[in-house]
Structure formats: structure tokens, C-alpha cells
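ligand=adenosine-5'-triphosphate
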Amino acid sequence: MKQSQLFTRVKREAPKDEVSKNAQLLLRAGFIHKEMAGAYSFLPLGLRVLNNIMQVIREEMNAVGGQELSLASLQEKELWEKTDRWDDAKVDVWFKTALKNGTELGLAVTHEEPITRMMAQHVSSYRDLPVLAYQFQTKFRNETRAKSGIMRTREFIMKDLYSFTRNKEEHETVYATLREAYKKIFARLGLGAITYQTFASGGMFSKYSEEFQTVSNAGEDVIYIDEASGKALNVEVLNDEVLADLGLKRENLIERASIEVGNTFSLGTKFSEPLGLSYKNEKGESCPVIMGSYGIGPARLMGTIAEVLSDGSGLVWPESVAPFRVHLLSLGADEKAGETYTALTAAGIEVLYDDRDTTAGEKFAESDLLGMPWRVVVGKRSLESGKAEVKKRTEKEAGEVSFEELVSFFQK
Ligand code: ATP
Ligand code: MG
């Protein structure tokens, strides 16, 4: 894409009322727009990042047999009363609304209830299970704190997967598969080394739930890391007597602020029993379906990447999520740069081409702020040398690649 055609503009300063680093950087770079506290819009560059993150997640969910669907956002009061989760005293983040005739409705906080009721119309025999279904869908939550930029908003897209299995053993197998899929996702997003599988309190059906926590000072959570095992504990379970069965030793724990980027829950029959989701086993007996739920926040991940991978000059996107792989700058060599742009894009390499008539200083500073993984500069010197200057966003020194080799350099 030619930058002269991009409508978003880079700003020198972030709005004064914006306290979080991720939103400051993303607002300045024109990736997002702040509608109000707790609600942001995604602009072209930001949407490309969000879509890339969702695509990584989608690929890993499909790889474990997840089937993508999309459930409605309007939710029925009667359904949520059946599981006793309509009351604001039980779920304190509801946004509720009403039909013109006065019938109360909820805006989706999560989707266990609707997906369980829906599944009851499709699952009846042991032959129909297991099922893994997931979506990328908007949740609305009336969060009290909204000071973490795009990491905690009142409207956000969640990837939520729900597993439906025949028994506890089958659930455990699926649960472990999802845990590994989550690890792959965080590794592909460049967060693997600082994201910890973290034990948190479980609820009625399992001793623990698990969170994936990324170490960052911008985090609202605190975890206790055991570096030897690469696992961590949430404060809720820090004083539990079982640490031993988790393979963790209390003396070794290191306290860190962290961001919860995802989580996994064993739900047992908490939803299937009250909502009548059962199946007939081989003997024809009716059994409740065993469920699990698995959440990830794509925008929270985008904010996390902005927080932890950025540097003093701006954003730093890993190749897996960058809006464009290459930022091509023309410094007074528009014809050669234009040819380079055509050659790279024709080869399927995604390029943002700064073809604007601005100073070199401005182009370099904006390029650092926007954070594409590679910068390619075509200037007057390139015309003599036959080489473009190529620099990685994460490195200080630039190298040179001849124009003939440029396409194959990026195809590697
Ligand atoms: P938290 O403890 O941070 O409020 P949660 O326990 O409410 O998170 P879930 O309801 O399980 O989280 O949601 C699954 C995932 O959705 C979280 O791991 C997180 O990545 C993301 N998420 C949750 N709340 C928000 C929010 N308000 N804004 C953006 N992403 C969110
Ligand atoms: Mg919450």
C-alpha cells in the first residue's frame, strides 16, 4: 500500500488523558481511535494487526479440530436465569438492555449458556462427541477499571472455544491439547518466552483453572514464577497446600506483574446439567456432557505486544502480526523505489511504501514508530550502488541488498 493513500496520520503526541503505553503508541501511530474510555476503534493498520493475530489463533484452533461459528450478541434473560448468572450480584459486568415491549435482554458477556443450549439440538449420542466449537465474537463488559488501553475495554472481541466431551478422561485429553495449542499461539506471536502457564483457582469441577500470563509491568495481575519448571501461580492459589503435585516449590517463586492473555477452564457439568445437554452412551443411558471453555483476547494480545516489544522509538511488530512486512522509504528516488514496490508486491511481499513528499528525518521517525519488521530505503545513493539499504526494526545496523536480489531476500 502506498502511504500517500493511507488516510491515518501519525501524531507527535498522544492525548493527555491516555495513561497506558499501548494506547499512547497505537493512537500516535494511527492504528486505533479512542471513542471513549474503554472503547477503541481499529483503523486500517490496527485492523491488519488484529486480523493477523486472529488468523494465528484460528489456525491453531482449526489444527486441534475446532469448528468456527458465530453466536448472537443479544442474550435472553430466561436462559441466564437457568444457570443463575443473570443477577448483577452474580455477574457484575452485565450491560443490559430491553426490547420496546419491556422484555429485558443482555449484551453478550460470554457464551457458555447460548452455546450449551444450541448444542443440545445437535448432540444426542456418544457418536456425536467430542465437539470443539469456537468463535471470534464481541463481548460487552461493564468493567469498572478501563485504564489499560486496549487491554481492558468494555467492548472487545474474544476468541472463545468450548469443548464438549463424553467423560472426564476425554475432557482431560482435549484440555491438554488446547493448552499446547495456546503455547504455540503465544510463541508464534513473539510472546512465548515471557508467557507462563499459571495455575489459578478452579471452581467446582477442577482444583485449578489455568491462565496464560505475560510478564509486563503494565499488567494488572501478579504471578509467582517458578523458572525451573517454567510455570507460575496466581495469587489465589499461592497459599494452597498442593503445590507439590504441580511440581512447584514455594521457595523458588519470583513475583512479577503480568497480563492475562488467555485462560482455560474445566466446567464439568455446570452448564450441561441445568441446560439439558446430555447424550446417550453405548448402553442407551443418558449422561451429561462434560464441558470446558478456553478464552483469548486478541486485542489484549495486540496491546501486550505493543507494551512489551516496543522500544524508545516506537512499535515493534513480529513478522507474524505486522500490518506490512516491509516499510519501503523513497528518499528522493521515486522512480527506482516505485519499481521496487511493484516488484516486491508482485512477489506477494506485503509492503507499505512511503511515497510521500516529506523529509528523510520524518520518514525515518515515522517508520520507527509504525514498527514494520523490515525497513528498505531507496535513495540517491542506491541509484549509483545498485543496492537498497535494508534494516531490521530490532537491529541498529543496516545492510545492503542489490536490487536483483531483493525479492529473493524477502522470499527466504
Ligand atoms: P480479567 O481477569 O483480566 O478480567 P477474565 O478472567 O474476565 O479476565 P475471561 O472472561 O476468561 O477473562 O476472558 C478470556 C480472555 O479475554 C482473557 O484471558 C483476556 O485475554 C480477554 N479479556 C477479558 N476481559 C477483557 C477486556 N475487558 N478487554 C479485553 N480483553 C479482555
Ligand atoms: Mg474480567
